[in-house]
Description:
Elements: E1 2-7, E2 10-11, H1 18-36, E3 40-48, H2 52-61, H3 65-82, E4 89-92, H4 96-111, E5 115-125, E6 130-132, E7 137-138, E8 142-143, E9 151-160, H5 166-175, E10 180-181, H6 183-194, E11 200-201, E12 203-204, E13 220-221, H7 223-228, H8 230-237, H9 245-248, E14 253-257, H10 261-274, E15 282-286, E16 289-290, H11 307-314, H12 316-326, E17 333-334, H13 337-366, E18 370-371, H14 378-384, H15 387-396, H16 400-421, H17 423-429, H18 433-454, H19 459-469, E19 486-487
Parallel strand pairs: 1-3, 1-14, 2-3, 3-4, 10-15, 14-15, 16-17
Antiparallel strand pairs: 5-6, 5-9, 7-8, 9-11, 12-13, 18-19
Helix pairs in contact: 2-3, 4-8, 5-6, 6-10, 11-12, 12-13, 13-18, 15-16, 16-18, 17-18, 18-19
Amino acid sequence: MSYYVTTAINYVNAVPHLGHAYEAITADVMARNARARGESTFFLTGTDEHGEPVALAAAAEGVAPLELADRNAERFRALTATLEISNDFFIRTTDPGHVVRVQEILQRVHDAGHVYLGTYEGWYCPRCADFKTEAEMAPDYHCAIHGIPLERESEENWFFRLSAFQERLEALFDGQGDFVMPRHAYNEARSFLAGGLTDVSLTRKTLTWGIDVPWDEGHVFYVWFDALLNYVTALGYARDGEDLTAQFWPATFHVIGKDILKFHAIYWPALLLAADLEPPRHVYVHGFLLGPDGEKMSKSRGNVLDPFDVVGEFGADVLRHYLLREVSSGQDGPVSLDGVRTRYTTELANEYGNLASRTLNMLERYCDGRVAAVALDEGLSGDFAGLTARVDALLDHAELSSALDEIWRLVRRLNRYVEEHAPWQLARAGDRADELTRVLASLAEGLRLVTVLLNPYMPAKTATLLEALGRPELDQRDYAAEGWGGPVGELAPLFPK
Length: 497
């Protein structure tokens, strides 16, 4: 079975921020979990480099758009490396492979009669690169997202017959209640659809920074249609000499922010239908990260956390854990440096890190540094019954925070198990060696399993711990009936206080 997950591609008109990190981490957890359970997986991220926002940002700096794109694309690449993101390909929409495939697909849409030439007049946000309806505007013709005045635009464009796909989109939504997740995002998209669709601009004539329209010289494709197609085009050239489209399309999950819901839940499936391609299986919509003031993070408000700074101080695994633990999946949530410090101390150092150190130290002290091949404590194994299946089911519904809650419940259960059985007292008793061996083998197996399930969230620290346990494999995802009978190694504190 194949599993294909994507992030939205990131505009190169500015440098990466914590919201980009949050989305990349979210998709990465989903991809790593799919790989661990044996699914053929492809994970795509990248940069969106055409359109007016990039052209305007480049002009403000006095550089060519491609120069700005080249510089900031490398910053996004650096962010993926810094965050331990396991993407299989990094697409840039200036890639020749993307450009030629956009032209081919949209030529097909044109030839099928889904486009026509007309004149558009409306209110436009240059930062969204989007024409706004009355319902989408803030008062006094301002952008509801960016708070800037909208511009009145009138130009000749080629239009996409979005309205022609009203009934087919309604059938898609009504026949698949989890097409958009979570439910409140589904309801918002379905409400937009119920309001009736109008045709939308497919091309722009007043811009030059974009992909040329093959059937009409002087037009470039509207940046959103260029960008949305990346999810399909990347599969055609991500691996030299191989087309992965048949293997991985349709996508399993598009992971996006809520401010671009309309494009991904309405425009995108309609365009795919027009090109005779299947819509994605799911669109997962995460919320905004909020500053301590409760407002969406933005440089203008001065409430931004720089992901590179947080990783520099705490490490990538800490940021990954914090964001998915602190912010409920699909919801807005406040984040802060103080919050990172609190989760680090209370959960990572005191609960998980301490559990790891105690377990390995007791195995070394009381069991000659080995996990014995003995039958494990049935009481503890009952606590783990169904854990992996529950985690997988939650991740299949993009409930990343709830899945992490399930795992962390068992981390805490293992800490209680240590206190309940007090291995140090069993060791002093002298006549309870068999019980001591069983308790520590059971504890080690529990620690191994929660660490395997935590690996998608914290890949570096968990790999270090699994190596110390002598069990680095990630595909052994169930609680065993018997200890594995092997040595353990030394472990420096995973999360030093």
